[in-house]
Amino acid sequence: MTGFGQVGDLSLRTVNGRFLEIRLHTPREWGELEAEIRTRVQSQVARGTLDLYVNRSKSGSSTPLHFELNVEAAQRYLAAAKELARKTKVSGEVSLTQLLQVPEVLRTVHEETLSAEKKRQILKQLDQALAKLDLERRREGESIRRELKSLLQSLRQVLKQVSKMAESSPEDLRARLKARLERAGAESGVDEQRFHQELAILVDRGDIREEIARLEEHIKAYAALLDQKAAVGKSLDFYAQELLREVNTIGSKTQNAELTRQVVLAKSIVEKIREQVQNVE
Fold first, then answer.
1. Distances from the Cα of 75 to the Cα of 80, 81, 91, 99, 133, angstroms
2. Would you call 271 exposed, middle or buried from its count of C-beta atoms within 10 A (0-12, 13-18, 19+)?
3. For site-directed labelling of 111, which of 46, 52, 145, 153 has its Cα 20 to 30 A away?
4. CA proximity to 237, closest of 44, 3, 18, 50
5. CA gyration radius, the chain
6. What are phi and psi of 66, to 5 degrees?
7. Domain boundaries, the chain
8. CA distance 201 to 190
9. For 241-254, how does the pLDDT look when each residue is reduced to its tens digit (9 = 90+)?
């Protein structure tokens, strides 16, 4: 799920994703904290892409600095300047300001280590930002939960219609087979036993009772998952695929136009469920 949380210089952003990906955009001196940061994020976020940003303009100003002098480089530069003056017969002195501008004479060094207190502050900010992020994601999650329950109820209503049609399906097949034979003018010459054998084959091929029963069980399982507080995104994704599988199987077996219409409606609902599930952790 998408979300945002910020405390001080540290901010977190998440977007939807099937798996967890943590991307850290932090100063180099934070390297020693990377493992701990990832551990804390993983304890709060199960799926999605999370980006952690640090306001470098602020954090950089508090980074300890020191300067390194390269006296040997300065001496070589002075010696070279005197040699140049002697050979060109140009007089002049090198000032301290000029000397400090020579590359490698004075080097600014950023401290690459964090104090214990700074580490504590960073991790405290991270925990606070994660708490804010979690609050935003929970709000979105509740909205998605309501939408999924509504879609699930719509699927139940369609399944009721499909079940009613399945009850009358054998008689419909019998009537259609008989009508087909009558149109061909061959009913009188058809063996009764052969007729019932062919009918039994057609009924068996079009029997969707098992698929309906599995769909009912998947819907129950889906509803139970929606009431859980834990991260169930992957489970919901799995069951959404199973819902679509059973609906497709029913569609492949049906020869009834109205039943086909109900199957198309069911597929549309399941596809909406699958789309919403991608946003669930």
1. 9, 10, 18, 10, 56
2. middle
3. 52
4. 18
5. 36
6. -150, 165
7. 3-61+115-134, 65-110, 142-277
8. 16
9. 999 999 998 888 77
